[in-house]
Specification:
The chain is mainly alpha-helical. The chain is 64% helix and 7% strand. The chain has seven helices and two strands, in the order E-E-H-H-H-H-H-H-H. Strands 1-2 form a two-stranded antiparallel ribbon.
């Protein structure tokens, strides 16, 4: 089964921006050169350590580091994101979805890429748990967020919705 990298979704899109009668293409991507407070620098370091711990399978440490990052700077979305990813891997789907929503709410208003990875994470967590109705709603949220900038990703999430339903039908006991 095909799966797009969580960080790859949304990062591939291109937007057409009109400025003074000129149209130019803008790639949908993570913000760069964002400076913050000492608390946000500490939070960013903890978020990075959390992601590394999760990648190495140390889920308890990843969760603890994400929580520390949230405590260091409650406005930084990335510790919430890492918390959500870790909770999803632990099978704590409802808590993961709530943490993804918290992350969504903490991205800068113009950070469409950040919001998109959090919304996609929520959708993917529901889909992996076989909760296809909730996954569909989250995939719809994702599609409405990025459709103008990344129509290919929008098409892919529509396929993922169908795959979720198909997996459930295959897993259902025969009557």
């Amino acid at each position: 089964m095909r799966r797009l990298s969580l960080l790859g979704v949304g990062a591939l899109g291109v937007a057409l921006i009109t400025s003074g009668g000129n149209v130019r293409a803008v790639q949908l991507r993570a913000p760069q050169n964002v400076q913050g407070t000492a608390a946000s620098q500490q939070s960013a370091q903890l978020a990075s350590r959390s992601a590394a711990a999760r990648a190495s399978g140390q889920l308890d440490a990843a969760l603890s580091l994400a929580e520390q990052g949230i405590h260091a700077d409650g406005d930084d979305p990335w510790p919430y994101y890492n918390k959500a990813m870790t909770l999803g891997e632990l099978g704590r789907v409802d808590e993961a979805a709530a943490a993804f929503r918290e992350a969504e709410g903490h991205y800068f208003p113009g950070d469409l890429w950040g919001k998109s990875v959090a919304v996609y994470g929520r959708a993917n967590t529901y889909a992996q748990a076989g909760r296809c109705a909730e996954a569909k709603q989250a995939y719809d949220d994702y599609a409405s967020l990025v459709w103008q900038y990344d129509p290919k990703s929008t098409d892919l999430v529509r396929q993922y919705e169908a795959e979720c339903r198909a997996r459930l039908r295959l897993a259902a006991p025969a009557r």
